[in-house]
Amino acid sequence: MPEQRETLEGFTASTFSHGGISHQVFRAGAGPAVIVIHEIPGIHPGVVDLARRLIGRGYTVYLPSMFGTPGGAAGGPAIAKSIAKVCVSREFAILANRSSPATSWLRALAAQAHQECGGPGVGAIGMCMTGSFALAMALEPAVLAPVMSQPGLPAGLTARRRAAVGLDDVELAQVKARTSQGLRLLGLRFSNDRACPAARFETMRREFGESFESIEIDSSPGNPFGISQSAHCVLTVDLVDTPGHPTEAALARTIEFIGEQLRPGTGPRAGADGQ
Fold first, then answer.
1. pTM for the complete prediction?
2. Domain spans in the chain, listed from the N-terminal domain onward
3. CATH code for 2-262?
4. Coil, helix or strand for 67?
């Protein structure tokens, strides 16, 4: 499909297998590895744009294709199809407060990416249904820069699930142990986003303390920037790439955060667009 090939131009494709799970992975760039885990409906152009920004800042980006059509547009039919697949897949724990089986595969990918790219460790950005995956990936010692953008799992059907972070008690204790040793976490959400409840970030602030940095962008009615109350995708679909806009600032902070962990001591670099 020409559109898909154009969207992912410059990326090389391979298949990574671990624990009985196999997915296609697209790779491009040079430098420390950052794994960008796409949101619904898949590796759409906005996700690739984010990947290219990171490549422009001197990172090797790995784009695992967990569901959907790589390079396809983020339209309504594609969203519905991807949600249906995720809901029936055994790789995703939609309701349970524990890490999904897919995160074991992602941790193995992170370990391989670290081996291939070197550097102090690996960054991970999860978004929407994969937002909490970046947190679960912190169980892998190579992951040093986990970014949870609008983490939507587990689905917030009850108050308990709205406050859940996608880790069981043992996993949570392991991540807390890493934060006590210096691991830092970054979370992004819109304030009015019901798919990523405020209670979820409250839990992370309580459990991880100062190790968890949260950016919550005002999307309440009448907010100064006219951000829609339905805004959800901080780094992609709802990104407004204009200086001074809070989503642009969130993107810049995300890239800065990754640099602080993967390039300690290098100081601020160029703008978020990689120019």
1. 0.91
2. 2-262
3. 3.40.50.1820
4. coil
